[in-house]
Amino acid sequence: MSDQHLLEVRDLVVRFRTHDGAVHAVNGVSFDLAAGETLGVAGESGCGKSVTNLAIVGLLPKPAGRVEGGSVKLEGRELTTLKEEELRQVRGSEIAMIFQDPMTSLNPVLRIEEQLIETIQAHREVTKEAARTRAIELLTAVGVANPESRLRSYPHEFSGGMRQRVMIAMALALEPRVLIADEPTTALDVTIQAQVLDLLRRLTEERGTATILVTHDLGVLAGMADRVNVMYAGAVIESGTTDDLFANPRHPYTVGLLRSIPRLDGETGGKLVPIEGRPPDLIDAPVGCSFYARCAWRTDRCATETPALLPIDGGKGPIVTSGPAATHVAACFNPVAPEEVAEGRPLRRSGGATR
Amino acid sequence: MFRAALVDPQIARASRGLWGDAARRLRRNRPALVGLFCIVLFALAAILAPVISPFDPYAMNGSSLDAPSLTHLFGTDLLGRDIFSRVLYGAQISLFVGVGAVVLALVIGGVLGAIAGGFGGRIDGVIMRATDVFLSIPSILLAIGIVTALGRGMVQLMFAIAVSYAPTFARLLRGSLLALREADYVVAARTIGASRMRILVRHMLPNALTPLIVQATLVLATAIIDIAGLGFLGLGPADPRTPEWGTMLVDARRFMQTAPHIVVFIGGAIVISAIGFNLLGDGLRESLDPKLKR
After folding, report:
1. Nearest-CA distance B263 → chain A (Å)
2. DSSP label at B291?
3. Of A152, A175, A198, which one is at a domain's C-terminal end?
4. Do B185 and A106 touch (CB under 8 A)?
5. Is residue A106 within 8 angstroms of chain B, CB to CB?
6. Which ipTM did the prediction report?
7. Measured between alpha carbons, how far is A167 from A138 in angstroms, rounded to an integer?
8. Residue B185: closest CA among chain A residues belongs to which residue?
9. Domain tally, chain A
10. How many residue pairs bridge chain A and chain B with CB atoms within 8 Å of each other?
11. What is the residue range of A256's domain?
């Protein structure tokens, strides 16, 4: 394990206070991000992917949402206790974000020029002319034709893909160390999706930007991410390099996710298999494994004890949390055996493989 | 309806920008054009009063209570003053006090609303409860109270009306700001590290101003009626000779039986200007709201 990761999230706990009680949105999420690495985060709606990211940059909706525990360290510097003003300096210049909907993420009444220059001048003491030159460079880099004249355009004069390119230009304007892309292509056409993803990959590789890529599109993750965290009910339940995870999923939920998407290399006429049931209500504090109610592999132990993220091979060596040699970990007492993955159901009486 | 959904309006025609679009929609709205015509008439009367009025509005130029004639288009009042000239100068006062009051109300209400909606929390609570108090008092009563306390005069009149309208503007702006606080581009601006003040001034206020513009136009109509109303109640300009419409109406009321044309001309002036602002306000609301795009 390296001495220090670029971004270290430890036991992050986020709660939302509502009229019905506290929503346990994020329950002890830990992960590391090394410089230049792309971490994919997968999971269904409401599993805490976006909330985790908002918590990292301190933008949880106030006053309902609060970080109630854990730490977020950027290059060793604790972010959760920073004052708003200090956090503001971090946002944009060290951690930048791209959102899902490029149609609404740009201010409709301001020209692209003003929004780009604003981003640059919010953090750098530069003249308007210098910022403008930089803005033109950025638009060129993200593939906007005629950047000089396009700077004078309003957001509604751009197409969706072009707007997302502008958003990427804004996010990368200050060469952040970490880029959080929250479903950056969900709102775009499939052909445009591929272009935007290519662009994103090229730019982050060129600049050595570490990326957290949130998506529910596993195909996107397979192509883009070095490592993947699978989240369920506010916790990471399986994590490993993309290759490991796709080739050898061990958590029943990950298996379910993979089986619920169509495959090009699979048999024709095969049915997609949904995961039965619904995610747990996060208002109740979780007891036992959060996937218990929907799991075919469950045992009595799963109802009362919460499984920890442990190496799938039961190895005793140190857990590597980042990089290409990251340890494949899963939070399951009764992990799916390789031969069961294709079947999607346990091939044993009960108890099954233990570790 | 269906065609609108199929053809993206941004592709269907070259964009003219927010204001270009709004102006084009306004031109198609007949009631709004009538309103605009009334307002232009009113504004021209006010601005050109010294040029076009045939007589000095303060001087006696004819015999008492003359019927309308070519010399005195609207006739004369009890003291033989030319009513046409007095109505023109009255427009000047209504326009001056009305616009002044609404601008003042916009400034007071706008600042309070921006603070409340932009910062929220305790300061929001304090400002909103204060506006509740002001809104619970009928506006004309509040204005009477303020004029009584400050004394009669045009500036006092302006201030009184401004104070009674400011809470409405404050609420309106706060409401639109609250709705914008969670807007994606506001959150996006926060993620790039824009300061709170900058987000409020550059990103939120420009997007929240539309309802304020509409409300200001509509309130101008009420303001003109309120000014006349206060004048009618004897709380108009300090000098009773001033050709203020409400004050003139009180004098004219006594001769409603013998010389009804005086009341009709003065009342007509009030009606035309108030209806003008009302129609234009409604038209603006429709043309500035992109959701009503046709």
Report:
1. 48
2. G
3. A175
4. yes
5. yes
6. 0.73
7. 11
8. A105
9. 2
10. 75
11. 7-94+180-341
